[in-house]
Amino acid sequence: NLTLTVTNGPCSAEKTELLRIRLEAPTISIQPTEFCNGNAGPIPVAVAPTGGKVSGDGVKDGGAGAFVFVPSDIKLGRSNSENIPITYEIDGVKVSTTVKVYHDPVAEFDITRRPTPESPRLEVDGTKSTFAAQFSWSFGDGSPAVTTPRASHNYTQSGDYEVKLSVRNGPCSSEKSERVPVQLTRPGGGC
What we know:
About 25% of the residues are buried. The protein contains no helices and 16 strands. By secondary structure, it is mainly β. About 0% of the residues lie in helices and about 50% in strands.
């Protein structure tokens, strides 16, 4: 308590107020700082000292002075991701941090050309994938990955191969695969 006494000749007045002095600067943190929109959480938001209020999209009161962030509560627009500010306020002092929420990508592809005995070439198109920032194709034969949305591949041996497209958007990922039979010689060994 702080008491102020004012004296003017024989008259005096006194006023007492509760005075809070914080020696610790407020802090806020959340780990990790990147999330997939499909993550239902809840993710704890760490604050110090306790006793204040956390605000921001996706933030909920976790009870007993705790706060949580729920990535799936964020309504994302058409961009692949959005930065979300989260603010902690205590005794009129505000501190903020930012998290990034990404759309969950969906891997989709079409096989636009299948291998035939006349041509071992496979062509694939992954441009129908949604919210995909990175692509990686596996052709099931041990060849190096191809990292473009559209790809082609020449097989050297007959067999059944699993063609797989993996897509990423920040920390979020999706995969789709399809078995592709490859027959490089005509049945019966003829021409």
